[in-house]
Amino acid sequence: MRRYIIAxxxxxxxxxxxxxxxxxxxxxxxxxxxxxxxxGASLSSPSVTVQVTAxxxxxxxxLTYRVNGAGEVAVTITPGxxxxxxxxxxxxxxxxxxxxxxxxxxxxxxxxASLNIQVSSSNPSTxxxxxxxxxxxxxxxxxxxxxxxxxxxxTITYAAAQLKPxxxxxxxxxxxxxxVSVSVSGxxxxxxxxxxxxxxxxxxxxxxxxxxxxxxxxxxDVIGFEVTNSTNSGIISWRPYNRFLFNHVYGIRAQCDSxxxxxxxxxxxxxxxxxxxxxLVHDIGDLSAGFCTRIHGIYQGAPRGTxxxxxxxRARGFGITTWHAATAVTISNNLSFAxxxxxxxxxxxxxxxxxxxxxxxxxxxxxxxxxxxxSEENNTGVNRFVxxxxxxxxTNWRLQTSSHQGSLSLDxxxxxxxxxxxxxxxxxxxxxxxxxxxxxxxxxxDFLARPRVQGATLDLxxxxxx
Length: 466
What we know:
By secondary structure, the protein is mainly beta. It has one helix at residues 156-161; strands at 31-36, 48-67, 73-75, 80-89, 95-105, 110-119, 134-137, 168-171, 174-176, 180-182, 192-196, 202-205, 211-215, 220-223, 226-228, 233-237, 243-245, 248-252, 261-266, 275-277, 280-284, 295-300, 306-308, 311-315, 318-322, 330-332, 335-337, 342-348, 361-363, 366-368, 372-378, 384-386, 389-391, 395-398, 403-405, 414-416, 424-427.
């Protein structure tokens, strides 16, 4: 990812009226107001979550949006006199974008409000995709093609099944309406790489399937995808030695039942020695239903995992959590904020291996604005919690069998903190989190794929600023 400051919103303008987020229409038409994002922000990400409310004397029957003059896209609502909705808009272009939201009543009258969104012209940074025999999937391709760039395959699942150890699959920008299944395996010396050709350019719409990308093999790297609309997990691994890097996972419709779910998931005790690095994970589960301890942003259920440089917010449970057979896991340089239950938890349980959640290193994280900050849960041993910044959580620390060292409880000094994801979460020049990290087990790069250490030592959180 190149210079992705994760500002998830925008400058808001409306053609008529003094309040740019409120519609004006003919008498009897619905009243429509954009609640979020707020006016005056700018966007570095090509995706944004829009929150609106609409009301009508009879009933609001339909809600739609249009992006840059394209066709209307329906928003799922329950018709009624008052309607509230939240929806994600992706594929914004660099420069100026206009999103027009329209509410209709039962008589066919309508009113609209507009967002004018400025997106930074800088492209996401180049993340490392290794060289090797390379194949392609692209819009307009065919599974009868040869998989070359000129004659790409059509579906990612078909393409993945053709791969051998050491081979690369690059997925060209576009929307792929499929739940991706990966059953092949690489080897320790010849991994299989399945990568979006540009970060978040290949968009996986799982269309209500359990998993967006379901990895059943080993030694697989999944890099740079946008994944949404699955009902359990966005990306999941069932086998060891897999890596999920630089992905954007959101809008996962996990249910608060015995299965639960997560944005990025190393759930199975057999998915050991995996890595979840540099992912943006948010809006996991139905947030309007309140917290649920079975639905999380990032989930590590196996031994010896690595969870680094991730940004996670607005999950119904923890932003980052461990359970099942998790032990000896590294959790470092993450940002977890505004989750409904907690920021980061370390724990184990419901496993047949008898593992204790011990020998963890939890370091250099920033955890802000959660009911619980950093906690130990259930079956824990001695773990190391070193140089973390926890701030403005209802309870910053809830440790059972360990203690924390070098921690800060200070405003991290983001450029522009907003709990809804529309802010800029890089560190300002005066941030107390700069040069406060420990180098032990530190990642080589940051969330933007830049070198991890640029100053005296590494900074806390996912961004390295100087």
